[in-house]
TrEMBL record:
PANTHER family noted in UniProt: NUDIX HYDROLASE DOMAIN-CONTAINING PROTEIN (PTHR11839:SF18), UDP/ADP-SUGAR PYROPHOSPHATASE (PTHR11839)
Gene source species: Oceanobacillus polygoni
InterPro entries on file: NUDIX_hydrolase-like_dom_sf, NUDIX_hydrolase_CS, NUDIX_hydrolase_dom
Superkingdom assignment: Bacteria
Keywords: Hydrolase
GO biological process: nucleoside phosphate metabolic process; ribose phosphate metabolic process
SUPFAM superfamilies referenced in this protein's UniProt entry, alphabetically: Nudix
GO cellular component: a single term: cytosol
Protein's UniProt name: ADP-ribose pyrophosphatase
Length: 181
């Protein structure tokens, strides 16, 4: 057994949804005892840090029901089954902002909540944006407003907790650390 590995004894799927699946696993711990683990299975997601020619970051504001408030975030979305993350990133950029690009650079991937979920988010950046004449429509149940902020304005939104999610905070930290804007 690998160091700290928990061996699955039994796994039961308790919910199969549109975005997530939930399962409960019985596991054997490294010390030989057993425990239950409640797991959220997620197909993964992508996010894009879009930078305009005048060095502003494009964000979207949308209502987040679990939080009962709107957040300002970088464009992002769930991966479809077996979808290439780079293709998904372009799709989400187009649907949410009306911009496209042929020049996305991979930044990083990270797990959002590894204590109970397997969601992996892939982040890309571009400063080669092209405004689309006829952008594709987003999801029927998704309502977003596009806004552009300077890096300093985005940092202020973090302080005000208007930007308050991990992927967007990471994007701002990444741009700040590189002195990119």
């Amino acid at each position: 057994m690998k160091k700290f590995e928990e061996k699955t004894i039994k796994s039961e799927q308790v919910f199969n949804g549109k975005i997530i699946n939930l399962q409960v696993d019985d596991v054997t711990l490294p010390n030989g005892k057993t425990a239950k683990r409640e797991l959220v299975k997620h197909p993964g997601a992508v996010a894009v840090i879009p930078i305009t020619k005048d060095n502003k970051i494009i964000f979207v504001e949308q209502y987040r029901k679990p939080l009962e408030k709107s957040l300002i975030e970088i464009p992002a979305g769930k991966l479809d089954s077996n979808e290439n993350p780079l293709a998904a990133a372009v799709r989400e950029l187009e649907e949410e902002t009306g911009y496209t690009t042929n020049d996305l650079s991979f930044v990083t991937s990270f797990y959002t909540s590894p204590g109970f979920a397997d969601e992996l988010v892939h982040i890309y950046v571009t400063d080669q944006l092209v405004k689309m004449e006829n952008p594709p429509q987003g999801d029927d149940d998704e309502f977003v407003e596009v806004l552009e902020l300077t890096l300093d304005e985005a940092k202020e939104y973090v302080v005000e907790e208007r930007i308050h999610d991990a992927k967007t905070n990471y994007a701002i930290l990444y741009l700040h650390a590189l002195g990119r804007l």
